[in-house]
Design brief:
The chain is an alpha+beta fold. It has a single domain, classed as 3-Layer(aba) Sandwich (Aminopeptidase). It has five helices and seven strands. It is globular and about 40 Å long. About 30% of the residues are buried. It comes from Geodermatophilus tzadiensis. Keywords: Acyltransferase, Transferase.
Amino acid sequence: MESLPFPRLTGTAEVSVRPAVPADAAAIARVQGETWRTAFRALLPAAVLDGWDATAAEAAWTAAVTAPPTPGHGVLVAVDDGRVVGFAAHGPAELDDGEQPHPAGPTTDLAVLLVEPRWGRRGHGSRLLAAVADLARRTGARRLQAWVAEGDAVTAGFLESAGWAREGWVRTLDAAGTPVREVRWHTLLEEDA
């Protein structure tokens, strides 16, 4: 009996991470707005969510892409079959009051990493995080850090699964008159990665 070859499926999903371009700003703002409204509804005050201004967000992301504050700042997008489904923004970390530089060396701040919830669990977040780590290493950074809302178990779990840990620093932000407490997470970058 002749064995039949496995069926061949036509077409494959094309997924990638690349530097953002100005034309991505609207999609980045869309991902941010959708993620905040769905995944962060319990973490952000209603005033922030109800007052979401997509036009202002698009303008802010256009500026972040076209005129970053330093050469070390950047925005990356995760793309799935031509559609922007997530993004990450990073840059040199600033020291908080009373903080000394980390003994491991320079730190890159992961300012935000969001994947639209309906595109979650497909590796987009991991690809974005790996790309930020690669870029940080190239700038001489030896450490990554990120501020995470205290009640954000999903992001905390994601970072923990990637080898990150809570660092002990805490800050409170004012989100439309509501305090949002954040904790800082960090990881050391391997030099030979």
